[in-house]
Amino acid sequence: MACLAALGPGEALRAKDLAELTSIPLPYLSKVLRKLVLEGLLDSQNGHHGGFSLSRPAKKITYADILRATEFDVVADHRCAFGWERCNAERPCALHGTYGKLKDGFQEWARKTTLADADLRLLRRDIAGRPAPE
Q1: pLDDT of residue 50
Q2: What are the tens digits of pLDDT across the range 56-82?
């Protein structure tokens, strides 16, 4: 998503190019991209000049939006650091208090931070240095 946020207006990246740029296996990336399109975070265009692009400005897409679209809801996640099913305030694990602080901080960051907060200049540099599509 950050790589797509770094693109210029009207630009798009093909899944294959995005996979190469990010070193994410194409079959896995394709599934994630599909979820992001279905959730309205990405637009997809077929054809020679097609590819994926953000469906709205980067400053309007939070990391919580992205995580929810990929089926990780930062607010609803109540998993235990140890993976216990019954870890809660009444029956806490050894890390319950400190892990709870970490999760709270992560949730706040994900809700408040947008794609526009990434250093898009660095991503633009990396994208500009990629080989031309075949």
Answers
A1: 87
A2: 999 999 999 999 999 886 666 677 777
Q: Both tokens of residue 5?
A: 């946020």
Residue 68 in tokens:
């929810």
Long-range contacts of 80-84 (CB under 8 A, 24+ apart): none
CA 93 and chain centroid, separation: 30
Residue whose token pair is 């400190």: 98
The pTM for the full model equals 0.80
Domains of the chain and CATH, by start: 1-57+119-134 (1.10.10.10), 62-113 (no CATH)
DSSP 64-133: HHHHHHTT--TTT----TT--TT-SSSS--TTHHHHHHHHHHHHHHHHH-BGGGS-HHHHHHHHHTSPPP
pLDDT of residue 130: 60
CA distance 60 to 81: 31
